[in-house]
Amino acid sequence: MTRTDVSLTTADAERIATAIEAELAPSTRATYDCAWRQWERWCQGRGINPLPAPPDALAAFLAERAEAGLTFGTLDGYCSGIAHRHHQEGLADPTADAVVRRVRRGLRRILGVAPIRQAHPLTVAELGQIVASIGPDTATGIRDRAIFLLGYASAMRPGEISALNIEDFLRKPTGILINIRRSKTDQDARGQLIGVVRGDNPLTDPIRALDAWLKVRPGGPGALFTRVRWRNHPTADRMGPRAISRTVQQRANEAGFDGVPVSGHSLRAGHATTAAVNGVSIDRIAAQTRHRDLGTLLNHYIRPAEAMATTSSRDLGL
User: Fold this and answer.
1) Cα separation, 9 vs 267, whole angstroms
2) More confident residue, 300 or 175
3) Which of 59, 149, 219, 261 is the most exposed place for a label (fewest CB within 10 A)?
4) What's the whole-model pTM score?
């Protein structure tokens, strides 16, 4: 079957461009753009044409970046970004070349694939310590308490917390149901429903913290967590995922956790790890965290928690 030329209107072209633009999530597109900039900069320093990428040059680029301290995951992301750019231009994928594939396999063995520094999973006691250090007398403090407690209780990612709208909540007698419209494991936006119940401790009750923020937040639909100007003037401007993560890091540092790798992911990691320590089944944890790969959940959260609970070193009398 051969393609035939057809006459398209400007509106047709705009709709096609919009659909193609939506092929990748904004975060993925930003990652690919960053990868391409790094590759272009390296090529400029060597006098090499970056497109199409010479496989030998790409292999040298990856090896040099690995020697500079980049993780294998970062290098893998670079390859994805460079391959995507070639696909866009209708060019052969240089990462499929035999030399590049062999270099990538070698670097995988040399560097390993585990993250260098995983996010510290916050315990409930640590969460309480941080929340207690946040003053409840400003709009910023009220909002940040709600971010910590709702994020921890729901096990949401920073991007999911950022994307929440007022209309995504359904009140229930024991708590709330949250409709997560799109997530890392739901790129087609089918929607995922999770529940958050009221807490027993007024300091760490996520529903109490959420209600306190809703009394301060400007009324009307739209973003749940918004920016605050001059500490006591909430706006309707949505906080982005990076702002959520920075808030978690900053508040943790102010509470005395400087030097501890607390990040936006520490809320989700803390939920999963604490639930595992408390004997919650992996199926229930996975239903809340919405992990598609149970191996990730098991290896990153369940087994570390079990290893500390069952270690025989506690019985040595040291």
Assistant:
1) 49
2) 175
3) 219
4) 0.66
